[in-house]
Specification:
There is one protein chain. The chain has helices spanning 20-23, 29-51, 60-64, 84-91, 103-112, 148-157, 174-187, 204-213, 231-239, and strands spanning 74-78, 95-100, 117-120, 133-139, 159-170, 216-226, 248-251, 257-264. It is of the alpha/beta class. The chain has an eight-stranded mixed beta sheet. The longest helix is centred in the first third of the chain and has 23 residues, at 29-51. The protein starts with 19 loop residues before the first helix and ends with a strand.
């Protein structure tokens, strides 16, 4: 565990994925796609809970009687990767901007859903004015940078007052090292060295501190873990290939992977 203390995370791995982002099962990106299903559902649930109904969820009768739902949200997805969350939110009718440093990855994303506004950029110097967005998301990104507090601060800058900041990352402890880092290396083919490094994982209380220092108050948390009850989990352990029916579930424990949402004051 201590051998990773000075190593840099291997972010270059994602540049070479190409179409494997979308289809490969013999690759840890298949876990990212499967986990995204659970994360996207939670984000949508929290959006409706905290901000109210949106056009895609407004009953036809409400539209006919001009019972107005909220207008589409202006959303920014930082570190969007292949655009899994961005596409899910765009499908709900929101205006979605998605930023990533990897141009090859953005090209894959753009080819799937052109109506998302993809931008190559730097998460520490976002090319947007203050208060430009109703929602900012940073999913599976903060554990890939050396200064996550600065990334959170920049996300807060482009968020309007009362807006929501969604995040997903991994907690820093022995169990997370064993399951998330070593588990992928042992049980998923084509997992590169240093896809994750433990020293960059973030404990929930640390991330809460980053949010509060940036003028945002955490509103809700949930853990995310593989569904150990499904045959797909055990099949992956035996074959080192992620079955298409592999699933993740939400949990009260934040020891491994966790989601959260904070509101800007």
């Amino acid at each position: 565990m201590g051998s990773q203390s000075g190593k840099a995370v291997n972010n270059a791995f994602y540049d070479g994925l190409g179409e494997r982002w979308l289809h490969a099962q013999d690759d840890p990106v298949a876990l990212l796609r499967a986990e995204g299903v659970a994360k996207q559902a939670w984000v949508k649930e929290q959006l409706e809970r905290l901000l109210g109904p949106f056009p895609s969820s407004t009953p036809a009768s409400a539209v006919e009687t001009e019972d107005l739902a909220r207008p589409p949200l202006q959303i920014l997805d930082i570190g969007c990767g292949a655009g899994f969350l961005a596409r899910a939110l765009r499908a709900d009718g929101h205006e979605v901007h998605a930023l990533d440093a990897s141009l090859p990855t953005l090209r894959i994303s753009q080819g799937v859903e052109a109506s998302v506004r993809y931008v190559q950029g730097n998460a520490f110097a976002l090319p947007y004015p203050d208060g430009a967005f109703d929602v900012v998301a940073s999913m599976d990104f903060l554990e890939h940078v050396e200064e996550p507090a600065a990334a959170v601060r920049e996300a807060a800058r482009v968020l309007r007052r009362g807006g929501l900041f969604f995040f997903h990352t991994f907690s820093r402890n022995f169990l997370a090292w064993l399951v998330i880092i070593k588990g992928a290396e042992w049980f998923v083919r084509n997992t590169p060295e240093r896809m994750h490094v433990l020293r960059l994982f973030i404990r929930p209380e640390e991330l809460a501190g980053y949010c509060r220092a940036s003028g945002m108050e955490p509103m809700a948390w949930t853990g995310v873990r593989p569904d150990f009850r499904r045959c797909a989990f055990w099949k992956m352990l035996a074959t080192r290939v992620v079955p298409e029916d592999f699933r993740f579930v939400l949990t009260s424990s934040l020891k491994l992977s966790y989601l959260g949402v904070a509101r800007k004051a």
